[in-house]
Amino acid sequence: MVCRKPMVVGTIETIIIGSSGMLGYDLCKVFPDAVKLTHKELEITNRDHVLESIRKIIPNVVINAAAYTDVDGCEDKQELAFQVNGYGPGHIAEACSIVGAKLVHFSTDYIFDGSKKEYVESDIPNPINVYGHSKLLGENKIIEKMNDYRIIRISWLFGIHGKNFVETMLRLSREMDTVKVVNDQFGKPTYTMDLANKVKEIIELDPGIYHITNDGICSWYEFASAIIDNTVPCTSGEFPKKAKRPRYSVLTNTKTKPMRHWKEALKDYLKERNA
Q: 187 in helix, strand or coil?
């Protein structure tokens, strides 16, 4: 039997892993009383350290926002990608199972190959790059080691406290006369603050896999056009990258109320960054 710390009624004792990242930062706003752990404070690839740390705190909820998200970098640093994105979540899940905590973990649209125009939670994954394979391993390790998990697949994140597509477009727009952006890859942009707020709801739902994004489908070019006025479309062939990208990585949410349209979220993002 697990001996829990006494809790104040109406609160959730929570750990946020990866608290210094773009998503982690906004999760800390939504869960201000959470125990916040950065990479320096918790190395998720170290199983013994993970088990020891979570056993000491005995949380009710663990939110894992730690990940290696450099899609092209994963092609060069495959071992790192699988350790951080694959085995690390498995260690966290094992620790959660021991102390009886719920786990919220973030996966990705890139576990799919893009052969379908939209993907629901029950669709069979088929990654086409190392990043996708490493994130899928993380999902499988969690499912293997515990039952009380909520895996949230997300896509095209943008948030105030990290590098993201919006900031890249604004910078390139200042530096270049025209900015070429691919118009043949489609997905759903997602504002980290909206996602962080949604996590509160997901924690209370049944265990399982959830697709959570802002509403609305667009190409990277259409997304860029909502940010800057000097963008021009191009094909993926004109803009080759080390890691292959799925043409369609549209996540369809079939389990919860949809979030607002990404264009509304973008307006709030731009207001916040300019405040």
A: strand
